[in-house]
Structure formats: C-alpha cells, structure tokens
Design brief:
Blueprint: E1 5-6, E2 11-12, H1 23-31, E3 39-43, H2 49-57, E4 62-66, H3 70-81, E5 89-92, H4 96-102, E6 107-112, H5 126-132, H6 139-149, E7 150-161, H7 162-173, E8 178-188, E9 193-201, E10 208-215, H8 225-231
Parallel strand pairs: 3-4, 3-6, 4-5, 6-7, 8-10
Antiparallel strand pairs: 1-2, 7-9, 8-9
C-alpha cells in the first residue's frame, strides 16, 4: 500500500482512486464558506478530501458524501473511519441522480469538484476518463440534483476551469442557481485564469468577484501569502 498524503489533521490514502489529490480539491475545501452550516453534501467525494476538510473547519458540521466509483467509495470510507471526524462523516455508494430522488434531507452546503471535460479525447484509463469527463455526471443532471437537495438559504460551491466555469454559470441560471461569489484563480501573476471557484445561491443577490494567485514565481513552494493563508490549516509544509 502506498504511503498516505499527510495533512495536518488527517491522512488520505489514495492508491485505489483514479484521481489523486490535487490543488483544485484543496482550494475548494478551504475556500467554501462553512460559517453556521449544519449539514453538507460532497458530490463525487473521491478520496474524501473535501469532506474531511469541511469537517475539520467546522466542529458542528455533519458531512454526507456521495461516490459512484466502488474503489473510491471504499477508500473514502476508510479515510473517514480513520479520521478524528468519523462520527460526523457518512458516505453513500450511489449516483447523485439516484440519491437526489430518494433523499428527504435539504443541505445548507453542497460542494463538488466535478468532472468537466465534455468533448475531446478520453483518458486511456477508463476510470480516470469517467472522473474527468462528464460521462456519468452531465452538468445539467448535477444542477438538477443540486436544485432538489439545496436548502432555500444554502449555497452550492464548485471549482472548474475558466471556460467550463462560465458555461456552467449559464446553465445554472436555468435552475435558478445564481453566482453570489466568484474567485478567479491564477497559477502566477500575468498568466491566464486557470480555475474559477463559484458559490451559487437560490437568491439572485449581488455577485462579488476577487482573485487568488497561487505562486509568486516558478520556484518550488514559492507560494503567495494569500494562498498560504487559505491553505495553512491543511498543508504540513505551510
């Protein structure tokens, strides 16, 4: 078995998961607002990283997670069980589309680091292709599920590449999910926008937009102060 990826307050085993821990998940888990939240849903939890981050950040938060891939489900279950937050974490091995049809609960936070490639060449690894491409979770079905499960005053947080993120915003409006906060993520100053973090609400409030730059330079671990501040409670090297 591979050694786990160690964070400050939990470990993540990921050898059985098609998609490994990456900056996207860490950014989303650290950025999402969890103030006064009581229950959260992580769609496509993978290794369980984001669910664990949310549980660490809010000691009163109960987090449900949904994962369709069997190997990832088993591994996330083990990561949850081995953490100090295990009593506030629960995982379901089911597609979110099915879960939304039977779940009676409404969540005040729904979060997802979803597949985003709609076209182009699929990864040779079939499991990785399913994770990265919208094969089993088209964005319209994700939005329909969120619309069903999100509480009236809740919010839905997501991270996507810039182009796909703007397309997702256009789709979300059809489900009366409106962007309330957007953070544009740059790997380095003067580079194109790499990702956008988006928080959706059922209320069409004023939208705020800000920026986050990850690196000062191309030197290893030369992170900006803003990135360090956002992730310092998780990364051991911060």
């Amino acid at each position: 078995m591979e050694k786990p990826f160690r964070f400050k307050h939990f470990d993540i085993y990921q050898d059985a998961c098609a998609m490994k821990i990456n900056t996207d998940g860490v950014l989303l888990g650290a950025w999402s607002s969890i103030t006064e939240k009581q229950n959260a849903l992580d769609i496509g939890t993978g290794t369980g990283l984001i669910a664990l981050m949310l549980a660490q950040r809010n000691s009163k938060l109960k987090v449900d997670a949904v994962e369709i891939d069997n190997a990832a489900f088993v591994q996330a279950f083990e990561n949850f069980r081995n953490s100090t937050f295990t009593d506030r974490l629960q995982i379901f091995h089911t597609p979110i589309q099915d879960y939304a049809r039977v779940c009676l609960k409404k969540y005040d936070l729904i979060i997802s680091n979803p597949p985003f490639f709609k076209a182009g060449t699929l990864a040779r690894n079939h499991r990785k292709a399913q994770v990265r491409h919208t094969i089993q979770l088209p964005h319209d079905e994700l939005l329909q599920s969120v619309d069903t499960l999100l509480a009236p005053n809740g919010h839905f947080d997501i991270i996507l590449p810039y182009t796909e993120g703007n397309q997702f915003i256009d789709e979300a409006i059809h489900y009366r999910l409106f962007p309330s906060k957007i953070t544009e993520v740059y790997t380095k100053e003067n580079k194109p926008i790499e990702r956008i973090l988006i928080s959706f609400s059922k209320k069409n409030n004023i939208q705020t937009t800000n920026q986050l730059i990850i690196h000062n330079s191309y030197a290893p671990k030369d992170y900006t102060e803003a990135f360090r501040t956002l992730t310092k409670d998780f990364y051991i090297f911060m």
